[in-house]
């Protein structure tokens, strides 16, 4: 009479053991999935930061084939194209991101940025026009300013540059762009002021230093500004100033500045030497 009872107990025990085993298997599987997801996230971060940009492109291309609906992978591929300076390929990649229902206005700004880098200015303007005016970011207004510059809409450009400067804690780059805009318009004194502001914000920004010298040279001011510079930079800026003087017909001043650049440079300054020889032979 006790046998059926024992079989019932055994069957129940086996069911419990089986359930425990299944539960453990599921827990292990979930743990593995979580680890894989974490590893993939870390690897994606590496591919977007320290990895070689072209390796990043290859990684996201492979991953996208297996995960065609994941917007983070689409976005990673687009960013990697930009990092690799493959802008013609970055544009369709960003368009693929923007088509996704989970895309954001920041994605559209990044598309416009890639379009500008690829020389597709009209497309970039259309993209920015599609973004609501309530989306106010530094990058958006910096791009708006660049497009206004390209269209020679100077008042709009100045307005956009001013807004962009107010939306970042690191305005040196945009101030340099604004100064260059003024330089191309022939407003040399205002360009010089903006380049000075850019250098004050970032004393390592050599492009702003060189542009400042161009603005001074355009005003026939052939002395170097009082700004931070190392010896090599000083020689290069003297060379820029010399070329500016020569361009305006002040040849003797240009020669003197070239000699100064050659003497200042800690190594052989081939470009300045070549320019001086050409002038002296002429």
Automatic annotation (TrEMBL):
| Record-linked InterPro entries | TPR-like_helical_dom_sf, TPR_rpt
Q: Which residues form the signal peptide?
A: 1-21
Membrane spanning residue stretches: none
Q: Does Signal show up as a keyword for this record?
A: yes
Q: Which UniProt keywords apply?
A: Signal
Q: Reply yes or no: does the keyword Signal apply.
A: yes
Q: Name residues in a coiled coil.
A: none
Q: What is this protein called?
A: Tetratricopeptide repeat protein
